[in-house]
Amino acid sequence: MLWRHVLSEDFLVATEIRVLYELLFTCKNNHGSNLTFRALKQVEQSINRLKDMKLDAALLELAQTGPSKLLRKQFSMIGDCQVPSQPMLEWIVLKVLGAARLLTRVMDHCSRAFVRARQQLKHDEFIVLNVAIISMVSRLWLFFKAIRSALVPLYGQIRNLHAKVSQAHPMPFLTCCSLPTSVMEFPKPPWSSLQPEGLDAAGLSKSSRAPKR
């Protein structure tokens, strides 16, 4: 499944997460009160929450509930098919939305750690450590942005199936709210605000690009 592949089996992401854990463990005694260290702790907490959601298990259960390709062909001939229930689909949709919000949050924490480490570099503080932190959180930001982007079509497919199931056999679980049309409408703060203020797309301050007089 997508979630298990990215957070557990993908070598690059798993390596970066292990580097984060090792870095936090090594620096916890000497840098526990450091603002950059605190931002990294928030990155770690968000990643742990993502793992605890067990979205991969929910998606696997969803895939096992539906018919195989061979059975779908047979069911299409008789006009009947076994599909997941509406409450199950709504529960999984909530998990996907929650994962999107957590991914937005972990990207925000990566941006904060990036800015704070860069500020320390300006004052020549912990140069080697901060260079390593900037490189690591930049890669994590890109990885989790790709994961969040992969949730967009996944959410759309599940939501389309939910619409068909709710029409064929209505049994609503969510009665007090409606599902957003896209994952992009759900996370707060907006995705466009994740880039730290004062930084351009390359991560450099706008003032640093001004010509010196």
Describe it.
The chain is built from 7 helices and no strands. 68% of the residues lie in helices and 0% in strands. It is elongated.
How many strand elements?
Answer: 0
Write down the secondary-structure element order. Answer: HHHHHHH
Q: Kindly report how far apart the N and C termini lie.
A: 55 Å
Tally the helices: what do you get? Answer: 7
Radius of gyration from CA coordinates: 21 Å
Low-confidence stretches: 5-9, 189-213
Strand content: under 5%
Determine the fraction of residues in helical runs and give it as a percent range: 55-70%
What is the topology?
Blueprint: H1 2-9, H2 11-27, H3 35-53, H4 55-65, H5 69-78, H6 86-122, H7 127-168
Question: What labels would you give this structure?
Answer:
213 residues, elongated, mainly alpha
Outline:
By secondary structure, the chain is mainly α. Helices cover 68% and strands 0% of the residues. The protein has helices at residues 2-9, 11-27, 35-53, 55-65, 69-78, 86-122, 127-168.
